[in-house]
Q: What sequence folds into this?
C-alpha cells in the first residue's frame, strides 16, 4: 500500500468512528462514511468492500491505538508487578472513557463482539511480545524455566490482561491496593512459580 | 432469581421450544410464532407468560442456559474436598460441557454475535453471579468466602478465554493438562495469598 493509500485508510477509519459514535453502527451507511471522510464512494469501496469489513478494520485499528497508548503509559515502570498494576488501572480508565466502545457495547454488542474476538488473538501476541522481556527481567536473566513454560505463562498472562480489562468483575479498579492484590495473586504468583523452574 | 423454571410449566415449554428452534435456525430467524409452534402452545399463551414477547423469551433462554450449565457443574463438584481437585474438575468439566454443547458450538460458528453478547458485559456479570452461587460454595471451606467468590470468577475467565480462543499451550478438555495448569498458574496465586488464615487483613482490605 502506498503512503497515500494508508493515509486515506486512516481518514476512512476516523470518519467511520465519528459516524458510528454519532449514529450507532447499524445506522451508519457506507455513503455516510464516504461523505464524512470527504472521499468518493468508489475510493471507499477500494479500501473496504462492506460495512462489516470496515468495522473489522476499525476494531483492529482501535485495538492497536489503545494498546499503543497503554504501552507508552507503562513503559517507564520499575518492574513487572508495577507495570501490571498501573497498566490494568490505566486500561480500565481508558476503556471507560472510550466513547465508541461504550456506546457499541451498550446498544449493539452483537455487531462488534465477533470482530473483537478475531482481533484479540492478534492483540494477545503483541501483549506477549511486550511482556516477555519484563518477565525475563523479573527472573534476573537466570531463569531455570523451560522456554515452553515461559511461553505458556505469557499466553496465560495475555489472556488475563484482556479478561480483566474487559471486565473488572468483583475487583474495584478504583482501589489501587485491591488491584495490587489482584496482580500478586492472579498474575505474579504464576510468573514466579514458572520462572523459578517450579513446574518441573 | 437464580432458579430454574419448573419442568412441565408453560414457561419451561416455551423456553425449550425457543432453544430447539434457535439451535436449528439461528436466533435472528426465530419469531414468536416459531417458538409457539415448536413449544406446542398458542401465541396467546406465549404472550401471557412473556408479555414482552420475543425479547423476554430470549432473555429467559439466556438465563436458563447459564443456570442449567452451572447446576450441572455444581453436581460434578459435590463431594470433592481437595482444592486442586475442585478447581481442576471445575475447569475441566466446564470446558468439556462447552465443547460438547452442540448449540454453543453451532452459535459460535454460525452466529457468534448473539452468543458472545451473553458472554460479555451484563451477560458476563450474570455468569460471574452464577459461579458465585454454584461454584464458590465448594471452595468456601478451603479459602474463605470472599476468596471463594473471586476464585469462582477467575475460573470463569479461564474457561471462557481458553474455550473461545484455543491455546497451543493447554487444552482444558484434557484433565492431566488442566492439573498441570492449575498447579502452575492458579494454585500459586491462591496458596501464596491464603497461607495466612482465611480472614487475613489483605483479603479484607481488598474486599472492601
A:
Amino acid at each position: 500500500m502506498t503512503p497515500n493509500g494508508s493515509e486515506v485508510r486512516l481518514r476512512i477509519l476516523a470518519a467511520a468512528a465519528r459516524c458510528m459514535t454519532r449514529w450507532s453502527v447499524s445506522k451508519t451507511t457506507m455513503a455516510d462514511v464516504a461523505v464524512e471522510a470527504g472521499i468518493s464512494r468508489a475510493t471507499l469501496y477500494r479500501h473496504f468492500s462492506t460495512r462489516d469489513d470496515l468495522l473489522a478494520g476499525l476494531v483492529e485499528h482501535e485495538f492497536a491505538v489503545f494498546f499503543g497508548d497503554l504501552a507508552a503509559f507503562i513503559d517507564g515502570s520499575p518492574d513487572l508487578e508495577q507495570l501490571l498494576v498501573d497498566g490494568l488501572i490505566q486500561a480500565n480508565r481508558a476503556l471507560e472513557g472510550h466513547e465508541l466502545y461504550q456506546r457499541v457495547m451498550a446498544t449493539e454488542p452483537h455487531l462488534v463482539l465477533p470482530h473483537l474476538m478475531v482481533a484479540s488473538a492478534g492483540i494477545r501476541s503483541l501483549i506477549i511480545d511486550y511482556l516477555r522481556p519484563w518477565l525475563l527481567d523479573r527472573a534476573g536473566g537466570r531463569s531455570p524455566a523451560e522456554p515452553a513454560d515461559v511461553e505458556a505463562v505469557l499466553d496465560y498472562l495475555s489472556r488475563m490482561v484482556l479478561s480483566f480489562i474487559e471486565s473488572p468483575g468483583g475487583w474495584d479498579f478504583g482501589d489501587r491496593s485491591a488491584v495490587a492484590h489482584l496482580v500478586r495473586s492472579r498474575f505474579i504468583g504464576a510468573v514466579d512459580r514458572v520462572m523459578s523452574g517450579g513446574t518441573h | 432469581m437464580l432458579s430454574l423454571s419448573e419442568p412441565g410449566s408453560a414457561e419451561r415449554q416455551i423456553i425449550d421450544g425457543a432453544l430447539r428452534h434457535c439451535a436449528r435456525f439461528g436466533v435472528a430467524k426465530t419469531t414468536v410464532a416459531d417458538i409457539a409452534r415448536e413449544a406446542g402452545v398458542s401465541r396467546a399463551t406465549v404472550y401471557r407468560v412473556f408479555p414482552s414477547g420475543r425479547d423476554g423469551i430470549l432473555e429467559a433462554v439466556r438465563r436458563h442456559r447459564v443456570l442449567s450449565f452451572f447446576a450441572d457443574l455444581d453436581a460434578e463438584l459435590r463431594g470433592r474436598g481437595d482444592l486442586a481437585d475442585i478447581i481442576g474438575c471445575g475447569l475441566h468439566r466446564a470446558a468439556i460441557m462447552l465443547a460438547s454443547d452442540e448449540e454453543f458450538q453451532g452459535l459460535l460458528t454460525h452466529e457468534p454475535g448473539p452468543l458472545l453478547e451473553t458472554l460479555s458485559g451484563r451477560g458476563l456479570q450474570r455468569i460471574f453471579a452464577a459461579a458465585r452461587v454454584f461454584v464458590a460454595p465448594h471452595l468456601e471451606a478451603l479459602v474463605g468466602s470472599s476468596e471463594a467468590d473471586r476464585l469462582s470468577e477467575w475460573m470463569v475467565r479461564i474457561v471462557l478465554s481458553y474455550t473461545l480462543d484455543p491455546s497451543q499451550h493447554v487444552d482444558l478438555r484434557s484433565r492431566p493438562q488442566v492439573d498441570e495448569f492449575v498447579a502452575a498458574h492458579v494454585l500459586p496465586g491462591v496458596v501464596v495469598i491464603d497461607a495466612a488464615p482465611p480472614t487475613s487483613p489483605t483479603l479484607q482490605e481488598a474486599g472492601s
User: Anything to note?
Assistant: DSSP finds nine helices and no strands in chain A. The radius of gyration of chain A is 20 Å. Chain A has a mean pLDDT of 92. The longest helix of chain A spans residues 109-138.
